[in-house]
Design a protein that fits this description.
By secondary structure, the chain is of the alpha/beta class. The protein contains 6 helices and 23 strands. A hairpin with a 2-residue loop joins strand 20 and strand 21.
Length: about 500
Amino acid sequence: ILRRAQNSGRMTIALTAGNGGAAVVSEATIVVKEPARDVWVQRNPRNDEKPADNQLYARDDSNEGTVYYNGVLTNASEAVFVKLYADGKLIRTEKQKPVVKPVATPAVAGAEYRYAFTLKLKPGLIKYRIDFGANSGGGETVLRSVTNLVCGDAYLIDGQSNALATDWGQGECPDTSEWVRSFGSNNGDISSGWGNAVRRHGAREIGCWGMDLAKRLVEDQKMPICIINGAAGGTLIEVHQRNPAKHAAPDTIYGRMLNRVETAGLTHGIRGAFWHQGENNQGTQGETGGYGWETYEQYFVDMVAAWKQDYPNIQHYYVFQIWPNSCSMGGTRASDKLRDVQRLLPRLYSNMSIMSTLGIKPVGPCHFPPAGYAEIARLICAVVERDNYGKVCDKPVTAPDLKKAYFTSDKRDEIALEFDQPMEWDKALVSEFYMDGGKGIVDGAAAGNIVKLKLIAASDAKTITYLVDSRWDDKKLLYGQNGIAALTFFEVPIGK
């Protein structure tokens, strides 16, 4: 049973069966058609679920947030009520008679009085308050008030240190926002609960670029934002996998983030996820003993499939291609290949974008300073607004990506690089391209989406590479006309 699809295309299924004799193999190919939009999955509330101070409710496909106020009274009441206030003004009152449920214990027989309210919130820069109380003897008593509730959008950040984005050295950035929320701590502790997010050093830290991104969305879209950052520094993609037997296992990075999201009531409200990782997979440190790039794609596919199960309404994924030789952990063909594996990940999905970290200034050979992280937020914010808020852009907002390479004629003395957007050229770039690992390019030019490379002589080269991380120069970068540095690519076949 194919339960979900994150792209469309032809899928081949193979079955091998044997009972001691020669195995029998059978294959079938089916056409998978992803729906234009997944059906929204509703979350089932807990019987005792109640709102908490400072909580953010994620809006759904109907552009509403849903508050469940459920529980039980031990004393009889004629009725219970909830009153909803928006910016201090009463906008809704609901009453109901509690449902009596007999309760018997070895010592005493009695009853409990159950209630269940559902309230809808409009999204936006609105602060809500809810009063809950009971009616008895003609009067009413407020039993509990929750304040500073908001309705907006929720996102996840995952990966390693540049996703965590807290190790920028000296100097604090203590700014926060009353409209940027988070829940719990990065180490998995949920005792701190809901509150305003911070960049680092404390509960509810969301990282430097996480805060900049959230504040941009608040400013541009007038929408409260929740970010839950579950990244862990210095980690391989292998250790970000889900425990299939216990999804929210507290001894896993995946489980700690999921537990925070579940406790916050946001599993069905996550709008998108950001992935910035790979520095530790550049070499031979993988659990398999091989090179990190060899297994990276499958680990990534498995992880994103797990996200789609545990966060069923997730709509978009955002991936960053890492800085070449980041943290001096690359410097080999394996690290160049890893970045190319990252470049190709969006080919597998209908709703994934990738952003280059090249061209970020101030530069980040390992970690970026706050100004560099702010630039990362600026770049990815435009993509997020295009995908989630209908922002119309007059030029591409993604990093240029190579679609194919080919010789322009039978002379084989010129190679055309076809990108997904208009490009720019600088003569200094001739040193950054390699054919079959060697040089031989003397000039180039850009016209629209095509960059043409003039060769010294006719060539029988089979592949072309842009930017070798053991000898690259951050001042010699290929850019699109949108001012964003192109994604690096490695040993792309040269066609005719």
